[in-house]
Write a structure and sequence with these properties.
The chain has 288 residues and is mainly α. It has one domain (2-286): Orthogonal Bundle (di-copper center containing domain from catechol oxidase). The protein has helices at 12-28, 30-40, 59-77, 155-162, 180-185, 198-206, 220-238, and strands spanning 2-4, 284-286. Strands 1-2 form a two-stranded parallel sheet. The longest helix is centred in the N-terminal third of the chain and has 19 residues, at 59-77. The model has no long low-confidence stretch (mean pLDDT 94).
Length: 288
């Protein structure tokens, strides 16, 4: 078992090892495989077919396995490396430690939003964007979206999700009005003054590559989702009698049949059931 740390608690040596392992996966071509996988399983309510990765109950276990696979790849490079997490309710400014030039680099420049600092800046020569939904070959960010400002979620706003007593609810998609999964993922119904919350709003605050299906192109994706995974863990501790819903395969007459996975239906591409990923404590722990 190993520990995932808050990025603010990493030593300089630990940050360097994480960055070097990520860059090595990029050099080997392995990193693009993770970006491509995320694009493949970014299926919205408006599209036909199974929604395994987003806008569905399996959002949390799917990304847990996705992180585990990435972490495993990092550890093949350096067995001491784990994915740190970014608590965006606390480290919520442009000058937070994760944006240091020695770690993830900072914001994009005006105009083309190109990241100019840090090891993932295009000019450093180690981070060409090869798989994306845009034509840019460089990493982009647009902190806070100045033209139409958006803020990072606060602890008080996050509490709305953490206080939900059930995991998910019908219709098991982005329009579910109750349930922890959708409140944390951050979809809201039409007319809401804040169209994105929590997880979704973080993607929009970072901007650039983090806006779409190819969001793993920005290495901060992993730190963001490690914190989302930690929040699921905290929610489980807060609501010990609650569990993954739906328990069983939805009936054929349910509009979400074949689109939303129950606890006992395997998630592609791994053939692993959500029920197998409800507890991670035999694999890793968090320092929180």
């Amino acid at each position: 078992m190993y520990t995932r740390k808050n990025q603010r608690n990493l030593t300089g040596a630990e940050k360097k090892k994480f960055v070097q392992a990520v860059l090595e996966l990029k050099r080997r071509g392995t990193y693009e495989e993770f970006v491509e996988l995320h694009i493949q399983y970014y299926i919205s309510d408006a599209e036909d077919g199974l929604r395994a990765g987003h806008m569905a109950p399996s959002f949390l276990p799917w990304h847990r396995q996705f992180l585990l696979d990435f972490e495993g790849a990092l550890q093949k490079v350096d067995k001491s490396v784990t994915i740190p997490y970014w608590d965006w309710t606390a480290d919520n400014s442009h000058s937070s430690s994760l944006w240091a030039e020695s770690f993830l680099g900072g914001n994009g420049r005006q105009g083309d939003r190109q990241v100019m600092t840090g090891p993932f800046a295009h000019r450093a020569g180690n981070w060409p964007i090869r798989t994306s939904v845009t034509d840019s070959d460089f990493l982009t960010r647009n902190f806070g979206r100045p033209a139409d400002p958006v803020s990072l979620p606060t602890a008080a706003e996050l509490a709305g999700a953490m206080n939900e007593k059930v995991y998910d609810a019908s219709p098991w998609d982005s329009t579910a009005r109750t349930g922890f999964r959708n409140r944390l993922e951050g979809w809201t119904t039409g007319g809401d003054k804040a169209p994105w919350r929590n997880h979704n709003r973080v993607h929009r605050w970072v901007g650039g590559e983090m806006l779409g299906a190819a969001s793993p192109n920005d290495p901060v994706f992993w730190l963001h989702h490690a914190f989302v995974d930690l929040l699921w863990d905290r929610w489980q501790s807060k609501h010990p009698k609650a569990t993954y819903l739906p328990h069983k395969r939805l009936p054929r007459n349910d509009p979400q049949s074949g689109r939303a996975l129950s606890a006992e239906e395997p998630m592609p591409p791994w053939n692993i059931k959500p029920s197998q990923l409800l507890d991670h404590k035999n694999l890793y722990r968090y320092d929180a």
